[in-house]
Amino acid sequence: MAALVPQTLAQTCATINPAWQPTFAPGYSGRVVMNGLQYPRSLIFDCNGNMLTTEGGGYGVRYIQLTDNGGTDVCVKSSKQLIKDSSINHGIALTPDCKTLFVSSLTTVWSWTYDGTNGTVSNKKTVVQNMKNGGYHLSRTLLVPKANPDMLIIQRGSDGNLDAAAAQVETARSQLRVFKIADIQAAAVDYTKGEVLAMGLRNTVGVGESPKGGIWTVDNGCDDMTRGGKDIHQENPCEELNYHGIINDTAAAEHGKDYGYPDCYAVWEPSIIPDNANLKVGTPFVIDNATAANTDATCQAKMAPKLCFPSHTAPLDIKFNAKGDIGYIPFHGSWDKAKPDGFRLSKVAFDPATGMPVEPSTSTTAAVNVMWNADNSQCPNKCFRPVTLAWGPKGQLFMTCDETNEIWVIGVRRLLEWKGHGYRGLLRYWIVCV
Which of 21, 63, 11 is closest to 401 using CA atoms? Predict the structure, then answer.
C-alpha cells in the first residue's frame, strides 16, 4: 500500500502550458512534457528510457533524457541534437538490443551504431535507398517488429493523389516491404528488393504491431473523390484500419496481398454514392477514372479494411496496450473537408483472444475519443495535431504534436480494489494507459 502512496502526491515537474488546451474523456488526463521542438514526428524509447524523436525544419533526430516520477509527472532532464540532417523527416526505429538505430528520409534509410548511455551514434550506413516520390507522401515509417526482431518494415506511399502506376507491384509505391536486417547491414539495397508485405495502400504512415505479433496499419484515403461524375469527397472514402498478419507467416491470407489503391476504396457514407448496389460502411468500391476494367465486384475481391474511420481525418499511427484490448490512434486531421475533422487521439477496442477489433467492419463508432480539440473550426492552426505515439519505460503513453511542436504524456485515473491484511480498500491513484 505504501508503494502506491507516492503516486497520489503533488506533481513535482514544472507545468508547461499547452499551446491549445485539449478536452479529455472521463478518466483521462495529460500534460505537455516538452515544447519548442521543430515539427516533431516519430517517437521511440531506447533501452535506458531515453526518448528519441525525429524533427523537421532541418533538425534531424533529438535525444531526450527524462525525469520520470511515474504517471504523468514526467519532465525533461536534458535534450540535445543526436543527428543533424535536414533530409530526415519521419521514420525511426531501434533493434531490440538498442544497438542499431534506423532513420529515414524521403529517399533513404540509414543505420547507425547507437549508444543510449552516452547519447551518441557512429558508423553511419546507407541500408535501403531509391524510395523517392515526385513530391507526394514523403514519410517512410519504420518498424522492427518484436515478433520478428531480425526484420525491418518500411512503408512507402503513393506519388500523387491517384497514382495510376502504383497498381503495378514493380513500382514499389503504396506498399509495405520487409528487409532482413543482417542483409541490409551488409550491403545497401534498393527498396524494390524488399519482400512485399502489402500493396495497394495509398499512404499508410501508421504502422504498428499487436501483442500477438500481427502488423496493423492505418491508411489515408484519396482526396477529391468522384463517382459517376458526382463529388462525394466530403464523406468518402473512409480512412482504413488494415491487418497484414505476422510477417514471417507467408501462408497467411493477408501476406503480400493487394488492398485496392489506386482503383478501390472503402465506403464511409454510402447514402451519397451514385450507383449504390447495396454498398455499406467498409465495403470496397471503385471510383471514377479507375486504371483498369474494375468494378465494385473486383474491388471487393481484394483485401477489405477491418474498420473504417471518417474521411480525411488522417490517422498516422497505431499503438496497442500490453493486454492487446486497446489500440490507440492519433488522427492528424483534415484539410480536404468543409468542416475540419480529426485532430484527436482515439482508442479502438480489440478482443485480446482473437487479436481482432471488437466492432464489426460496418461500425461507425469503433473509434472512441480520448483527447480532442473543443473547437475544430480553429484547426489546423489553432489546435493540437497528434502525429505518433510511443509507450514510455513505465508504461505511459507519449504523443508528438507537430503543429504545436509539443510532446505530451497521457494518463488514465482508475479505481483499483486492494486486498490484504484482512480488509479491502479502494485506492484512487495515477496509473498508465493499459
Answer: 21
